[in-house]
Amino acid sequence: MSAENDESDENDESAENAIKTMNRVSGFFNNIGSILLALILALIVWVVAVQQQDPLVENVYDRTIPITRIGPDQGVVPFGGLLERVQIRIRAPQSSWTTLAASNFAAQLDLRGLAAGSYNIPCWLRAVTRA
């Protein structure tokens, strides 16, 4: 009879552990809304803190950027009114303004595929990252 009691006690203990585990899992899912809300609020507080510490500043960059021309096609000669340099407006964290250089940017005019005529050509600007 003692062996049966030991086995019964083990089964009872195993059942109690299973119930405790189910209660923990159930409690987690019952609180998932609160957990997600806490994570979202923490993210908002972090973003605001970073923004306060190093705010974004938008201003005209004081140096001009040289324009690289792509093309034109053979036999087409551009003349008059082509810019050599461009001035840009940048929005960047305040701390990065001191490290900016004209070499951090590349401006391009794509003159390929243009026939004789007058055109307004967009100037493409991109940030250049150096390793």
The number of distinct β-strands equals: 6
Q: Helix and strand string, N-terminal first?
A: HHEEEEEE
State the low-pLDDT regions, or none.
none
Shape: elongated
Brief write-up:
This protein has helices spanning about 1-30, 30-55, and strands at about 55-60, 65-70, 85, 90-95, 105-110, 125. The model has no long low-confidence stretch (mean pLDDT about 85). The protein has about 130 residues and is of the alpha+beta class.
Describe the structure.
Helix content is 39%, strand content 22%. It is an alpha+beta fold. It has 2 domains: 2-53; 56-127. It has a 4-stranded mixed beta sheet with strand order 3-2-5-6, with no helix packed on it. The radius of gyration is 33 Å and the shape is elongated. The mean pLDDT is 84.
Features:
2 domains, elongated, 131 residues, alpha+beta, four-stranded mixed β-sheet
Task: Describe the SSE topology.
Elements lengths: L1 H29 L1 H22 L2 E5 L4 E6 L14 E2 L2 E5 L11 E6 L12 E5 L4
Parallel strand pairs: 2-5
Antiparallel strand pairs: 1-4, 2-3, 5-6
